[in-house]
Every structure is written in structure tokens, then in C-alpha cells.
Design goal:
This protein has two helices and seven strands, in the order H-H-E-E-E-E-E-E-E. It is an alpha+beta fold and 116 residues long. A six-stranded antiparallel barrel has the order 1-2-4-7-6-5.
């Protein structure tokens, strides 16, 4: 059984975002993979790819994407933008969606084939 304890951030001076960032840093250190963006390696949590088919002229085309979570505090060049190229596992992908909610410590990206 897990005991949940409420923390009074006004009294302790610790925000819930600081707590999330500290916990996330430990998870990234233990389970994270490296991604390369703008010639710098960043720790990231990478989801399994999701595949689908889209109807195009001449039939169906296979598509796929996956989610990458980055720690905001580690990003040296700000938050990646739509269309930026990021390398994972030796392959290059394109950013097709960005979820950026400051002051939340995580930035979530959806990456797809650079040709998609």
C-alpha cells in the first residue's frame, strides 16, 4: 500500500513542479535513452511507435510516430519547434507535435518520419 502525503508548498517553499522535476530526473537517469538535437545529446523517455494507415491517392500509406519526453531544464536551445530534426537510435525524425506547458518540467514531442 502506498501512503500519499500532501505537501504544503506555501509552507515548505517546494512547488509540485520542482518535486516532479526531481523525480523525473531520476527516472530519466535510470530508464532514459539519448536523442540528438542541434548537435547535443539529451536524455529522453521514448515510447513505442504507433503505426497506422492513411488513405492517399492510389491507396493506403503506412505511417507511424512516437512520443519523446524531454526534461525542460536540460534543453540548451529552448524547446524544439515543429519541423525540427531529432535523431533517435541512429535515425533522424521530424517533430510533428509539441506539448509545452511551462512551468511543467517535461516537454513532450511527437516524432515522425522526416518524409511524412
Amino acid at each position: 500500500m502506498v501512503n500519499l502525503v500532501a505537501v504544503d508548498s506555501a509552507r515548505t517553499g517546494v512547488s509540485v513542479y520542482n518535486e516532479i522535476a526531481a523525480d523525473a530526473a531520476q527516472v530519466f537517469a535510470e530508464f532514459g535513452k539519448q536523442v540528438l538535437w542541434k548537435d547535443h545529446a539529451y536524455p529522453a523517455l521514448i515510447s513505442e511507435p504507433a503505426f497506422s494507415q492513411e488513405f492517399e491517392t492510389g491507396g493506403f500509406a503506412d505511417t507511424g510516430d512516437f512520443t519523446v519526453k524531454l526534461l525542460r531544464a536540460t534543453l540548451l536551445h529552448g524547446v524544439p519547434k515543429l519541423g525540427d530534426r531529432i535523431a533517435c537510435n541512429g535515425e533522424e525524425y521530424r517533430v510533428v507535435r509539441v506539448t509545452d506547458r511551462p512551468p511543467h518540467p517535461l516537454v513532450t514531442l511527437v516524432l515522425s518520419s522526416p518524409d511524412a
